[in-house]
Write a structure and sequence with these properties.
Strand content: 35-45%
Number of strands: 10
Helix content: under 10%
Number of helices: 1
CATH architecture: 3-layer Sandwich
Strand order of the largest sheet: 5-6-7-8
Structural class: mainly beta
CATH class: Mainly Beta
Shape: globular
Radius of gyration: 14 Å
Distance between the termini: 9 Å
């Protein structure tokens, strides 16, 4: 793993989001309630982007099938509950998986994330 400088800290104001690319990974940086998070920008269910996902109860919710993942550790809070009836079938397309979460630090006015080598 290697710490990578990805963005100036002042670019991620409260409520802001930014997708950065590190190697082949697209990582979503979020500033939620003055806490910074770095998570994979791809929902583990059907690989849809999480960029527009809502934040509810400390989790990011996929805007496509409403799977929810804890921002701190990526644990699944809800797996594919939408659309009604069909969601249950869609949940069987892919086994329940956690969302990759990356360590983050702010140093000398920049955001660094620790991303494992591919």
């Amino acid at each position: 793993m290697a710490w990578t400088k990805v963005l100036g800290a002042d670019a991620l104001t409260p409520g802001a989001r930014e997708v950065v690319k590190v190697g082949d990974r697209k990582i979503l940086l979020l500033n939620h309630e003055n806490q910074l998070y770095a998570v994979d920008n791809t929902c583990p269910h059907l690989k849809m982007p999480l960029t527009k996902g809502k934040i509810e109860d400390g989790a990011i919710v996929c805007s496509f099938h409403r799977s929810a993942f804890d921002l701190k550790n990526g644990e699944v809070k809800t797996w594919c509950p939408f659309p009604p009836v069909v969601g249950k079938l869609l949940s069987m397309v892919s086994a329940e998986k956690t969302l990759p979460v990356y360590p983050l630090r702010v140093e000398e006015g920049s955001i660094f994330i620790d991303v494992p080598s591919a």
